[in-house]
Specification:
With 416 residues, the chain is an alpha+beta fold. The chain contains 14 helices and 9 strands. It has 3 domains: 79 residues; 155 residues, Four Helix Bundle (Hemerythrin (Met), subunit A), CATH 1.20.120.520; 103 residues, PAS domain (Beta-Lactamase, 2-Layer Sandwich). Strand 5 and strand 6 form a beta hairpin.
């Protein structure tokens, strides 16, 4: 046992000295070579402990944040996660990991596009920029992934006196979000030229994609294994119950996780979230009843709140437009093709200002005649509450002739 403790002490002291060398300005390649020759593999828990100790000993968190990417580069491939716990499908960590797979897939697409920028002709650049904007809009969805870490996971680490790494990681989240917003702003610039994108390529676009990918590595190598060691099943259940308030990132879990040993009472609390009923001036219903009503009416409905976040959509058996829970809490602008975003912004602006309260559209697609309406939702004082999108296929209704009275009901007509 004493030999193991001494080995752990040696590893942490050596790692600490190597990190301090980086902060002193030594060449990262030389530091990495020394790490490989002396340590080879470092348990993930010791990396966290060293970072925590350095901050406790006076190394400013801002300095740790400034060089955390170099830390990651030096340690890449040399963090031992063999002792990490395995989680079932649908567990919050499983969801985080699957979101990272989707993020990495989009990062790869964006990197591939950026690698062909030099070959894009002037007449094709507008379409190229629009497609690239679509990728960066999708990557902005990482904000929900980061918020769940910040507001659901980090508090449990802090309760266990692990404060330094979450603060550093949160700071990196903020950097990535700011850089993504800047990329999107550039790509949405009217009259954007190829030279403008070339100027920003190496100072903004390439670095943010690298930072996004590096964050997925930090999570898989350090954060998730550490959290699985520290957090209890009750902690994870609490995180799971609150996850949908923030939404998923580019991924909709196919399995609903439920830890073993939970009582039926716990399930009831999740389902009802109160006394189980909603009282309105014209009547009341339970949560199960209202869900059945909303999923039975022959419309697709999506609710966007006053902050332009998608908060709810119906889940009827026959959908017109595909929806997954990954859009929950996503900015509605990012849920539409870049070419139509300006129309969505115009509708929302008109609804908020009071200039309009209704915007109808209709399109024909794959044999369907689709009627789409946007409605402004307002309270009794006229304050804007959000927007309701209602979509319906009118193809069959437009064929109706004559009349079919209730007395002609036979029990087998009009079924769906």
């Amino acid at each position: 046992m004493s030999e193991l403790i001494n080995n752990s002490f040696f590893r942490k002291e050596k790692l600490k000295s190597l990190i301090l060398k980086l902060h002193a300005g030594e060449d990262p390649a030389a530091v990495r070579a020394e790490l490989i020759s002396t340590l080879q593999q470092i348990p993930y828990g010791e990396v966290v402990e060293v970072e925590q100790e350095l901050i406790a000993e006076g190394l400013p968190e801002t300095e740790v944040l400034r060089l955390c990417d170099i830390h990651g580069e030096v340690l890449d491939g040399h963090i031992d996660v063999s002792g990490s716990k395995v989680v079932p499908e649908g567990h919050p960590v499983d969801i985080f990991r699957n979101e990272n797979k989707e993020l990495l897939a989009v990062i790869q697409k964006a990197e591939t596009m950026l690698g062909t920028l030099h070959a894009v002709s002037a007449d094709k650049f507008s379409d190229y920029a629009m497609q690239l904007l679509g990728h960066f809009n999708a990557l902005m969805d990482v904000d929900k992934h980061y918020q769940r870490k910040e507001y659901l996971v980090f508090p449990y680490l802090e309760k266990n006196d692990i404060t330094g790494p979450p603060k550093v990681m949160w700071g990196k989240h903020d950097e990535i979000r700011d850089q993504l917003k800047a990329c999107i702003e550039i790509l949405r610039t009217e009259g954007l030229q190829k030279s403008d994108l070339e100027d920003a390529l190496e100072i903004l676009f390439v670095p943010v994609l690298r930072a996004l990918a590096d964050m997925t590595k930090k999570e898989s190598d350090i954060l998730f294994p550490m959290c699985l060691d520290v957090l209890t099943t009750d902690d994870w259940w609490s995180i799971h119950k609150q996850t949908l308030e923030f939404g998923f990132t580019l991924y909709d879990p196919p399995v609903e996780w439920k830890p073993e040993g939970l009582s039926g009472k716990a399930d009831e609390q999740v389902a009802s979230r109160g006394d189980g009923s909603v009282q309105l001036p014209s009547g009341s219903f339970t949560a199960a009843e209202i869900m059945a009503i909303l999923n039975t009416i022959p419309f697709d409905m999506t609710f966007v709140d006053k902050n332009d976040k998608v908060k709810y959509f119906t889940q009827g058996s026959e959908r017109i437009f595909a929806r997954s829970r990954s859009i929950i809490n996503r900015d509605v602008r990012l849920c539409h093709p870049p070419g139509s975003v300006h129309i969505i912004e115009k509708i929302i602006d008109d609804f908020k200002s009071g200039r309009a309260s209704h915007a109808p559209f209709w399109i024909q697609m794959k044999g369907k005649f689709i009627h789409i309406e946007y409605f402004a939702l307002r309270d009794e004082q006229g304050e804007y509450l959000g927007t309701l999108e209602v979509s319906q296929d009118l193809a069959e209704l437009r064929k109706l002739e004559g009349e079919q009275r209730i007395l002609s009901y036979s029990g087998n007509s009009g079924t769906k």
